[in-house]
Amino acid sequence: MSEAALTVENLTLSIGGARVVDGIGFAVAPGEVMAIVGESGCGKSLTAQAMMRLLPSAIRLDAGTVRLGADDITALPERAMQAIRGRRISMIFQEPQAALDPLSTIGSQIAEALRAPLSRVRADVRRMLEDVGISDPDRRIDQHPFELSGGMCQRVMIATALISRPGVLIADEPTTALDVTIQAQILDLLRRLATERQTAVVLITHDMGVVADIADRLAVMYAGRIAETGPTEAIFASPRHPYTALLLASIPRLTDVPKSELAVIEGRVPTPNEYGPGCRFANRCPRADARCVTETPPLRPIGEGRSTACFHAEAMA
Amino acid sequence: MSPTLEITDLKVHFPGRGGAPVRAVDGVSLSIAPGETLGLVGESGCGKSTVSNATVGLLAPTAGSVRVLGTELAGADAKTLRDIRAHAQMVFQDPVTSLNPRMTIGAAVGEPLLVRGIARGAALKARVGELLEEVGLRAENATRYPHQFSGGQRQRIVIARALALRPALLVCDEPVSALDVSVRAQILNLLVALQTRYGMSTLFVSHDLAVVRHVCDRVAVMYLGRIAEIGPRDALYAAPRHPYTRALLAAVPEPDPAIQRAKPRVPLAGEIPSPANPPSGCRFHTRCPLAVEICRQEAPELRMVGESAVACHLA
Q1: Is residue A75 part of a domain?
Q2: Which pTM was predicted?
Q3: Which of A54, A75, A313, B185 sits at a 20 to 30 Å CA gap from B246?
Q4: What are phi and psi of B93, to 5 degrees?
């Protein structure tokens, strides 16, 4: 286990007694891109915030550990955490313009991640800007965020996040606010930097296209739990949880028959106070039987590095 | 048959900072036949939403003509606009802000019928019930408020309201972009079913090329206020003629790692220039991998290449 850059075990979060994240666990190796996918409210962003130790005060950490390499950071005091954020674990967000300080130049914001004045680290910052594909870095380094496009601001955020060479990068919907041609550039950049710098990347997204593009492995979340996890190619080729299968079938593709009926998932996601003793997908699942309603299917290994939380996984093979 | 919508050389300019106007839409022509769905795709700032707003009279054209069922909207008086809006209804991206939180959904769906004096009392109530059922909701939901519904259900309510007057033209601006994947499929299935049932024309604005391919008969690709390429769906997707159309299609991440990872990587360099100061000649030349001298100097006109009209010197 010691070779994983990030290990999350049994992460359990609640709000007012309701379990919004329920026993999540996964590990990410250096240089690996691990995607956490799911729809609104599945708990993927809370999981990201828990890893950064940036949970809103209303959310309680009931159980679980987060480790960076061999170090347990779950209970570190905030002061110690501040020394770790940006150095050993960094995060980038969906809205790069909102995440940058409008009053400060991009050079000094990136330098801040090194805890140094820009004058002292200017050469490093310039090199980092070049590495994230910002053209004309000598001019850009002294500009403010409003002078840059959304795509360029996201490059600046990535530069800020990675300049201290953290082992782990959490990317929460990093391309959702960007146009498709810019998204392609940013995804290529993330993939390259993860490999070159051996950064473990946790990619939080709702977009299966983004997952298919750059993730080595993925975890599909539904209602606070992992439904299925494993290597990207294997899961897309043959999903072993009915939720994953329906989610994939509901996406219009460039290869399907136009105007054909897309698969739909009937009903809606249960709210945390509606969770019963069984599988949380049971009320919408075409394969559900009596056992699914009364018993929680554990996340169990099914070979090839895959795990699924479904009693019917073998029937889907 | 005469077209439901006919837009000719439409220009919509906004006053810009420091003099130069922002030419959001700068010479767009297109038409939609009865029963046809036209997709309008492009990235942020290409002018697609400005075209859709001008189509329902929410923005006045700077120049050019917008005709809905033969009636000119450019320069039309308030009464003409009011009358024509009965035939051209709009569905916006965000169903939450599209509905008045203090109005029951029955009142919202029935409002177009009430204000135009088409139905009232028991007849109105019955008609609202029918409309709700057409979009997959129950008639007894009419007395509830928007916050009691999910995002997907709210978009159904917005669609029911848009259908209330049986419009000849439905304008949908990013109707599924704010919705979760599984809900998106439900709304797309509904829109396709309604097209088949009522045969209205649809202008479908979206940044998502896979969604547009799924619901549209013809597709127009916009770049910086102009149409780069317009043609039948299958021709445009199978054999895109404009380098921008090709780049857009190449950039769509396919939800299939086998296909996606086998794709050649030709990411488009650079960013979209400002519509206040568009490049000379072909507006795409600053990012185009094929650009030659003529592209920098002369703006290409749309011309027929195969089944599509393409604005490229090299197509």
Answers
A1: no
A2: 0.91
A3: B185
A4: -65, -45
